[in-house]
Specification:
Elements: E1 9-10, E2 13-14, E3 38-42, H1 47-58, E4 66-69, E5 75-76, E6 87-88, H2 132-138, E7 150-153, E8 158-161, H3 164-173, H4 192-207, H5 209-214, H6 219-240, H7 253-272, H8 284-294
Parallel strand pairs: 3-4
Antiparallel strand pairs: 1-2, 3-7, 5-6, 7-8
Helix pairs in contact: 1-3, 1-7, 4-6, 4-7
């Protein structure tokens, strides 16, 4: 059954279901590292997808792994089926001459009209799929949650992986022979314990913590989530007062994972997810940390 993260609430608490596609790219395997074999499907709005775009750029893999950016406005994924109410990511629509097609409104019929394609919102390049859901169904998906990012195999026409934390590890280590920045290592051996330790508390309380606040349907669940998020926000501030990056003195994947949430914190999560106990703009330490990362080549 088609579903979204909004359907993953139990007893008032948001409980994210793990990603279903977890294959690994490695030499000698079914999914071997090759140039121009793999493709990323991403959304600019999505922090999980943003992780993969940053690592792809920092590693210099733009000529190795191609990208399609989905449309920012959700639409019905089965528009011709009146009984199917699922809404999700769709691809940009273009006329035969390449110009944007007809405009549309959002799924509630409010706002807009929005253009059917913004800059970089191209049609799905391989099958002409209308939605990300259709792409999943072509790969034989039975999980029913149609998320981005997707790491797609253009040779086998299937999904390799849709878990961002695993995709960025593969981009970091498995494509060095094709990378223009092979010496960039976002998961160095000497720092792996420190990186893993940071990820263990940043993910549930910050990365996923904002969703636990925003999608909570009971006061108890919200109170728990916002308390954990607030304490972790203060912990981040305390750490960054003493060292340059979140896991030490070197920029790592832990910073990538943290940055994509902090970048959206004030504008999105404080407003829509009620995470207003803290604010990046009011923390000089965290704000300067975000500014430094934003200015790194390939990040913005």
């Amino acid at each position: 059954m088609a579903r979204t993260a909004l359907d993953e609430t139990k007893d008032g608490e948001f409980k994210r279901v793990e990603s279903a596609w977890r294959n690994v790219i490695s030499k000698g395997s079914r999914f071997a590292p090759e140039k121009d074999r793999y493709h990323l499907f991403v959304a600019y709005a999505c922090p999980w997808a943003h992780r993969t775009l940053i690592v792809r750029a920092l590693k210099g893999l733009q000529d190795t792994i191609s990208v399609t950016v989905v449309h920012p406005i959700w639409q019905k994924t089965k528009p011709d089926d009146g009984s199917d109410t699922h809404c999700g990511w769709v691809f940009g629509v273009a006329d035969d001459d390449g110009a944007a097609g007809s405009s549309f409104v959002n799924v509630k019929g409010l706002g807009g009209p929005f253009p059917s394609r913004y800059f970089d919102n191209n049609p799905e390049p391989f099958f002409g799929c209308v939605s990300v859901r259709e792409l999943y169904e072509r790969a034989g998906d039975t999980n029913g949650k149609y998320t981005v990012p997707i790491l797609w195999d253009k040779s086998l026409n299937t999904i390799v992986n849709n878990e961002s934390s695993e995709i960025i590890r593969m981009l970091n280590s498995d494509f060095n022979e094709f990378s223009s920045c092979p010496n960039v290592d976002l998961y160095p051996f000497a720092m792996r314990d420190a990186i893993d330790s940071v990820n263990e508390w940043v993910y549930p309380t910050i990365n996923n913590g904002v969703y636990r606040c925003g999608f909570a349907t009971s006061q108890k669940a919200y109170d728990t989530a916002i308390d954990e998020l607030t304490k972790s926000f203060d912990r981040i501030e305390s750490i960054l007062q003493k060292q340059r990056y979140i896991a030490g003195d070197k920029f790592t994947e832990a910073d990538v994972r943290l940055f994509v949430t902090l970048l959206r914190f004030d504008e999105v999560y404080v407003v829509y997810f009620k995470t207003n106990t803290r604010c990046v703009a009011q923390s000089p330490v965290i704000l300067n940390y975000c500014r430094e990362i934003y200015q790194m080549p390939g990040v913005a």
